[in-house]
Task: structure prediction
Amino acid sequence: MRDRLVYSPLGLLAIIFLVILLWLCVTLLFLGAFSTGFTKMGFSWGDALLLLMASLVCGGVNIPLTTLESRTPVVKETAVRCFGMVYKIPVAETVRNQTILAVNLGGAVIPVAVSVYLLLKYPQALPYAAAGTIIVALVTYAVAKPIRGMGIATPIFVPPLASALTAILLTHYFFCASYECLFITAYSGGVLGTLIGADLLNLRLIADLGAPVASIGGAGTFDSIFLSGMIAVLIV
Result:
């Protein structure tokens, strides 16, 4: 059971794509082409890089929470394709119809911890972040798709773009011009909204998907959460 919980949530091409985006982000940070959200919040650009890299590297680590009785046979394929992305499925080593419910370290624990830290440090941004989270959660829930053998998947660019647009509109029309509100709304809205809209609101479906491991913030939503963090870093 343990060895199944450390595996890549994405296919090789998807990982290469995210690594290239991270490299471009690091290049812009290093060249000082613009001030970033993290640096304006008191972090160094090294901190921003460390958080992004930690999320990417830890995306393959899933912390088991509980075991669910699957109402359908557990799928034994090693990969599925959805929304143009290839997602890896851990090979089922048992014939029992059980699904391990886990939480992803890089796609849930780290981003949520950063979101909570920012909201505690800048409580004035809480109403905007809460509104952004609700909007992104509704958008994500509308486009999320249950995938047999894997769990819940979302189009990779929809949640991060929704979080960025929502942050810009909320802070503009409700008179919060500070970069704290904009950045925290984009980051927290993208992270928390995606987790709530894709994973938490669809937990009831997990037992019907025959997935060996269903990871909150893992395969299917990890890419969207990672991109939400990157967009928030670059948005202000």
Summary: The chain has one domain: 2-235.
